Amino acid sequence: MLEFLTHGLTYIVPFLVILTVLVFVHEFGHYFIARRNGVRVEVFSIGFGPEMFGWRDRAGTRWKFSTVPLGGYVKMFGDSDPSSGLPARSLALAPAERNVSFHYKRLGQRAAIVAAGPAANFLFAVLVLAVLFTTYGQPFTPPEVGQVQPGSAAQQGGVLPGDVILSIDGRAVERFEDLQQIVRLNPGVPMSVVVRRDGREQTLRVTPSRTELSDRFGNHYQIGLLGITHSGMDYVKRDPANAIIQAGAETWGLSVSTLKAMWQIVKGTRASGELGGPLRIAQMSGEVAQGGIVAVLWFMAVLSINLGLINLFPVPVLDGGHLLFYAAEAVRGKPLGQRAQEYGFRIGLALVLTLMVFATWNDLVHLRIVEFVRSLVT
What we know:
Blueprint: H1 2-36, E1 41-56, E2 62-76, H2 95-99, H3 107-135, E3 138-140, E4 145-148, H4 153-157, E5 164-168, E6 171-172, H5 176-184, E7 191-197, E8 200-206, E9 209-214, E10 220-225, E11 228-230, E12 234-236, H6 240-267, H7 278-289, H8 293-311, H9 319-332, H10 338-366, H11 369-377
Antiparallel strand pairs: 1-2, 3-12, 4-11, 5-6, 5-7, 7-8, 9-10
Helix pairs in contact: 1-3, 1-7, 3-6, 3-8, 3-9, 6-8
């Protein structure tokens, strides 16, 4: 019992705190832009299911915490359900009620309200990273080669110690981390590398080797490696303005890398087992929490970016699905029919649930829970 409580404090509590913050940020984006556009917000909920506790503000919004803390929602006036998926246009609303109803707002207003959730996640990530870069410093490693491992991809491609890597496949390299980020996502792919050697630029052809790694969470995945080390590393503190610029660039880079990795999973060039769900996030939250506040903030920024990206996927039920419907409405000049939207949301819900089940199964396998259950049965 004591061990269970200890694990609860180590993993579950940090997970719930981190998730609550990120869900609040996402839903507050919807809430803020909705209120700015004159929409009445009836409920702002952290979690789903029955209410545990809450309060009502002067504007009539019920702020509450619900029993299932795996998400949240904002319910606006006129919605038939918290997802805002099926417009309640059949309701006979008075003119005053239409003025505060989400579904009677202009197309641009509705799109802005929906897009505000993911936008809030990206903005949160930028602000968190900017604070870290200002106070703690931004990890900075000059792209200078320290050592080249014998027999490595770099040695076979002609890379020498002391080379300064300027670009790879046309993408400028300012930090060693930039190089790592590009190479890791391209195992076995021939790449063009421009280096500065003895004051002159040279172009080399290097193919990152395929390497399978296992991280501390038990995940197995393939990455690309050149077989080089950097010459040194430092943390560079940025002034507030430059920190925001660098944080924006870091957020963009992480977004691109995440999307590319997900596309590689879809194509089959990366193992689908890398896809994790809430159990693995909970485990990682506990591990990261032991590393201190800096590690937690980095983790929250990365999770916030992932949450924003996932919600922009053009799948009905997600924010991206709503935006897809609005794009169709802009082209057609009128909303999609009720039946088309209903089928779309059913399909979207099925896709999301399937993905959640798949990710949770991966979690159970990686956490060896499946193996434990099998041992009990056999």
